[in-house]
């Protein structure tokens, strides 16, 4: 148990299923009061009912005020978890790129803007960003997803280095495959690179809670990602050649 979470006001976006629902369940089990957000009101309501939380459905981009009201005035922990798995190339189309930026990056920026004044005044607050290993590496066949997850990671990193001396804690969760609806919809690229090592949403929640206890920014539910991230930084051309081999294998199987 993380003592500070007893009675804390927690918001989880995109919590109608998958990783978000697992995070919401885990925070509730730790004694937190949990706001369950999702675009899908029915699914948000079902998870809220199950865990004794409060459903605040809608677009994750603009829910901080409603969540704060629902929690009686204070948000202690905000999990920016809602995301879209926008696949495709440079030619994915303007609307696909715009949605990926809006949900995967700007929703985090807007939430932080709404949360920070109160957190800085109180000298505390916790921002949890569900990024992806694609934010540290790159996902085959998914340019908008890879680019915007790099953006989400950069924003989490910026928040952490800017406000850590003022009591704000930030965690960036960077899993590879997790068995959710999103993974099931990722198609042949997901089957090739994510399915073989996929974990359960509950494993992601466990990894976050270990990271909270150890006061760690980077949460790697797949520990091997640390080695890939090092290889990418140390030997970029070798890493790109290895990734290109996977790309060619994927193309051959299409
Ligand atoms: N599943 C994976 O393999 C995997 C791996 C790494 C990172 N992630 C990230 O984890 C997060 C959760 O994904 P998941 O796998 O649980 O997917 P999921 O599809 O099971 O759940 C995502 C939820 O977010 C909701 N949502 C989408 N846009 C929203 C918006 N604008 N406002 C509010 N809710 C919205 C959806 O309705 C859905 O219920 C995402 O940010 C995703 O990129 C997933």
Please estimate the helix content: 40-55%
What's the main sheet like?
Answer: 7 strands, parallel
Each distinct ligand: nicotinamide-adenine-dinucleotide
Q: How many beta-strand runs? A: 7
Roughly what fraction of the amino acids lie in strands? 5-15%
How many distinct folded domains? 1
Tell me the distance between the termini.
Answer: 46 Å
**SS-based structural class?**
alpha/beta
Please identify the oligomeric state. Answer: single chain
- Overall residue-averaged pLDDT value: 97
How many helices in DSSP terms?
A: 10
Q: How large, in whole angstroms, is the Cα Rg?
A: 18 Å
List the strand order in the largest sheet.
3-2-1-4-5-6-7
Which architecture does the CATH hierarchy give at level 2?
3-Layer(aba) Sandwich
Poorly predicted ranges: none
The SSE string, one letter per element, is EHEHEHEHEHEHHHEHH
For CATH, the homologous superfamily is named as NAD(P)-binding Rossmann-like Domain
CATH topology category name? Rossmann fold
Cα shape: globular
Give a short overview.
This protein is α/β, with parallel strands linked by helices and 254 residues long. The chain has ten helices and seven strands. Helix content is 52%, strand content 11%.
How would you characterize this protein structure?
By secondary structure, the protein is α/β, with parallel strands linked by helices. Strands 3-2-1-4-5-6-7 form a 7-stranded parallel beta sheet, with helices on both faces. It is 52% helix and 11% strand. α5 links the parallel β5 (125-130) and β6. The protein has 10 helices and 7 strands. The longest helix has 29 residues, at 94-122. The chain is globular. Residues 13-14, 16-20, 37-40, 43, 59-60, 81-85, 103, 130, 132, 175, 177-178, 180-183, 194 line the site of nicotinamide-adenine-dinucleotide (NAD).
